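During data preparation, we tokenized the protein backbone, and the record follows.
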Amino acid sequence: MKQEELKRMAAEAAAREVNSGEIVGLGTGSTTYYAIKYLGERTKDEGLGIIGIPTSRATEKIARESGIPLGTFEEYQEIDIAIDGADQVDHRLNLIKGGGGAHVREKIVASTAKRFLVVVDETKVSKELNIPVPVEVLPYATGLVIKRLEAMGATSLLRLSKKDYFISDNGNYVLDADFGTIEEPKKLEQDINRIKGVVDNGIFAGYRPEVYVGTKSGVEVFHF
């Protein structure tokens, strides 16, 4: 079974948890894409009445094309359920997110959601977090932040786009900081965020997600 099919299975299983009348956080990424498209189908075929809160301009575009009405935090301060992907999930359900550069908004949405559903395929599950951590930084402070991350033991690369530096929807740069195996995700998340010039980073520790994993034998769900 191909990876894209595993992504779709996980995403649609999570999207079936959404009920009419709910405010729904819509994450960013290739797996969440399938959830948004499925919610769009449910909106059309079942009359599902939801309001989506998108985490990126790319997600906003997909949601609008799928026929999902959208709202903002000016209108709604609490989210009933959020669906998002992850770049890696460890055995304690800590996450690394931000491969698409939307982790700051994704963390805001996750922090306000009553339920936080994470959709991944089985290749994203690991015993420990060990991939580079996306760190959104103010352009003014990039050099300073790189030095501070190096002092913490990380090798950092400034993320590039096809033509120039990658710019987040918030107008900032993103560093990918490689710490190797991360023994204490929560502590590292907090330590990175204490660096002046850091907006937020892609470690999601302690968010108590419900993780939907697409496997060759079906969708497995893990939660606290």
User: Anything to note?
Assistant: The helical segments are 3-15, 30-46, 57-65, 103-112, 142-151, 185-193. The mean pLDDT is 97. The two ends are 28 Å apart (CA to CA).
